[in-house]
Amino acid sequence: MNKKGFNEHSKRFLFGEQPAGLYIHIPFCLKKCPYCDFYSITDASFHPAFLNALSTEMRLNRGVDLVFDTLYVGGGTPSVFNEKSIDRIVETARRSFKILPGAEITLEVNPGTVTLEKLKGYRRAGVNRINIGVQSFNSVNLGFLGRIHSGRDADLAVKWAQSAGYKNIGLDLICGIPDQTTASWLRDLQAAVELGPQHLSCYILSFEPGTPMDRERKKERFKPLSEGRVCDLFETTVKFLSEHGYVQYEISNFARENIGGSGLKNAGENRSRHNTKYWTFTPYLGLGPSAHSFIEPERFWNHADVGKYMQDLARGKLPQAEKESLSLDQLMTEAVYLGLRQTRGIFFDAFDEKFGVSFRGMFGEIMAGLEEKGLMECSQGRCALTSKGMLALDSIAALFI
Q1: 20 to 30 A from 112, CA-CA: which of 8, 240, 298, 344?
Q2: Is the Cα dihedral 110, 114, 116, 120 positive or negative?
Q3: 196 lies in a domain?
Q4: Count of domains in the chain?
Q5: Rounded to whole angstroms, what are the CA distances from 39 to 259, 266, 285?
Q6: Which residues lie below 8 Å from residue 50, measured CB to CB, with a gap of 6+?
Q7: Mean of pLDDT values over 217-225
Q8: Separation of alpha carbons 155 and 28, rounded Å
């Protein structure tokens, strides 16, 4: 990529200066899911010491020059903690950082670890957005995925969250499960939309290296769906959710349209404000074991080990494992990849202003070739992948490097 004309003081990519996001990783689960490669352990004896260490980490980061409008507590399974512990986390974060009024405060929960009273307690603690790891309403699929909950548990968790007063509820679903049919996936989608959540994340099952599920795959204990079948399920997802009032704004994420007072439909307020920061070069600070942070041009991350994490903090030291400063080429590559993940795509003027280059001048031939194949659409000063193109995101993004 051509570095000529780069302006080190240019505005942040796409949205200019935006409030940052605060992420807290809770590294505990009741049981590890065989497909998951996020860091977590099942030893609950670490809970009290971890909470103390997390409070210390927040205090040590008090001097960070950021203002936050989102707090996302993820994992792991944050709902292994009771209301009092979540209240402590949220309150310590508020005391340690500049968190704006009206901030989006999200808590991830597993349907097998919540009750109505627990969800009410989280809301009293300040949580205003619940993200529920449903994955499937189908018992066979849940068994294959190693989930601890049933389809009925998932249904109840959503209804309890609604009864507890949450107006912003997101559900996670997984498709591409071995032997999954279009009909069975549509039943999952139908069950989800009937519950009326504000947000849906539909992820394609991936076999991450080192996970138990990937080891089982290599031993041929099951047969993964073909790439063609996975593509069909993805296209089914986009079509079905569009027909039911959910707008795709990122490759895996859909927000429900609301009809405002003027009669116009708008899904913007139902998007995950926090996750959008990851795709738009907005700074975010990550706390807890394995958590990543990004403050342009630097990325840094914590030890993916509870023991090392707590040892460093006991010595009054931040538990940072590594740090890297991204070069201009790396920043431009990420800007392309992250932009193409979003249905809004890449705005040429914003890219040109940030990097001091001409996006169309650099990539015009590539874009023309992708348009001809039906993988990209370019108009009104931007380019974006089609649904077909999104299925080839990684290989398409590689063309721009």
Answers
A1: 240
A2: negative
A3: yes
A4: 2
A5: 40, 36, 17
A6: 27, 28, 306, 310
A7: 96
A8: 23
